[in-house]
Each structure stands twice: as structure tokens, then as C-alpha cells.
Amino acid sequence: MTSQSQQTQYFVLPAKVVYAGALAFILSLILNGISIAFVSCDSLSWPTPFLFTDNSPAKLPINLQTVALEVADSERYGMYDDNDWASVTPAGHGFVKIGDGENYYAISMYHQLHCLNGFRKMLGGEHRNASRLEHDEMHVMHCLSYLRQMVLCSADITLEPAFSAENTDGRKTQAAYGTGVTHECRDWVEVRTFAEENYETWKDKAAGFAASEISVVHSN
């Protein structure tokens, strides 16, 4: 009985292919090392995420918690109650003092509420003299542009159920009301807490701040 020997086959790669593979591996290691170095340098250069490149504050130095808000219709915050609207703005008019210098900043959330309140007053027919009316017309144009960009900036992607409706001309369309829909938000109470605690540190210097609609509640 004879045995059949098995022959093992070997594949030999050309030297150029081996050298090219080794070179690619070395280059990959170098590039990864450079990437890690850049990330490390970047983290050292940015000790806080709350600064612009010129070291001026870009955001409040707080990390806001995530909260839920369910949209609801309410009789509060309507067209004519100044005190309701004044209650959403903290002492200090939504301004904060950040840093060691005399640098004051408006918190964007309160700027946006201020613009909404301006629309409310104009739509509610609040009396204005001629000079004030001209100012308000310029202000409402600013606020319209500002709020449009703030809505785009927030890019809220919450889905609101749509329903079939009829336009005034009788055409069918899809519509959404939004009431009862829950949105994921950032904790606006934390923002108010920070703003009011910050105000306590500079309120003695606030005499030069002009009174505004929030003086209805915050007369100091």
C-alpha cells in the first residue's frame, strides 16, 4: 500500500509589495499620533467650552440639565397682563456680569422673551407717542429677524402630529397644533437661578440701568 504525499504550496509576495505595506502601516501610525497630539493640544487650549477664541464668554458657565416641556394652552401670558410677562424675567433684566472687568452680557433666552413681549405690546395696542412709535417699528423689525434666526439656531426636531384641515379658500391641507406634544429642553430654571445669583454680585451698581417692562415686577 503506497501513501500519497501532500505537497504544501507557498506564496511569495514581491519585495515591493512588502515594503509598500510596511510603509503604509508606519504612515498610519504617524498620522494617528499627529491626530492624538492635535486633540491633546486642543483640549489644553480650551479648558472650558464657554469661551470664544478671544477669551470672551460665549455661554453661561453652567451645564444645563435636560428637562421635558409639554406644550399646553394657557390663559396666562396673554395679550394684556404685564405682570405675567414681567414674571418670566429675573431681577437684573436678564443681564449678567461675567469676568473680572466691567463686562455685562444679555442672556439670549431673555432677549428672545423681550422680543416676544415687544410684539405683544404692539399687537395689544399699547399707547405710544410718536417718537416711541418710530422706535418700536425699528425694534419690531430687529426682533422679527432675530427670532427667525434663533428658531433656526435651536433646530427643534420634535415631531408634532399633523391632521387634515381646510384652508379659508376650501383647499385641503395638513396642519399641526403642537398642544400636548412633549419637547426635550434645557432647564430654564437653572438659567434664572444663575442670572439672579449673578445679579446679587453687581446689583449695587445697577442704578444706571434703564427701567423696562420688567420693572412692573422688579422695581429695584
From TrEMBL:
Keywords assigned: Membrane, Transmembrane, Transmembrane helix
Pfam families: UstYa (PF11807)
Pathway where this protein functions: Mycotoxin biosynthesis
Family from the record: Belongs to the ustYa family.
Record's keyword annotation contains Transmembrane helix: yes
GO biological process entries: mycotoxin biosynthetic process
InterPro entries found in the cross-reference section: UstYa-like
Name of the protein in question: Uncharacterized protein
Membrane-spanning parts: 17-39
